[in-house]
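User: I'm curious whether this sequence folds into something compact or stays loose and floppy. Could you predict its structure so I can see for myself?
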Amino acid sequence: MTALVVAASANEAISEGKQMDTKKKILVVDDDPDFNLVIQKFLKKNGFEVDFAYNGAEGLKKIKENPPDAVVLDVMMPEKTGYELCEELKADARYADIPVVLLTSVASRVTSADMDVEPTQYSHHQGKCTQADDFLEKPASAQQILETVLRLVNP
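Assistant: Here's the prediction. I'll summarize afterward.
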């Protein structure tokens, strides 16, 4: 289960001048249902429309059916990893401009100093090689996710 710290409110985001002009749609792709539920509730509370998927293949299907304004994407998932999904999105002109935030606990286990060693299936190096728009280490707080999404959808 992903640990989250829910430490912000809509008023805090709005008081910092980050209020959204229109309701933006965020797709959260993570195989942890508890994480999806908490982030969905938090982002909705802060003015976003939120949908979620439980693996990369389901996420890709939802993106093709109804492209979101941003994707919050876990790395380690069944069927299609977050790296694979991010790579597919950024290689496709129809979806390349959708901001992608990669979330993973991999960063805490693999450092840049390890890059002279064969990368593991899920490595920090892979994350840095993707064209993701941002990269947050788990456990990321709901506040961190909110601030990142706000920055990416309201440049």
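Summary: The chain is about 35% helix and 15% strand. The CA atoms of residues 112 and 125 lie 7 Å apart.
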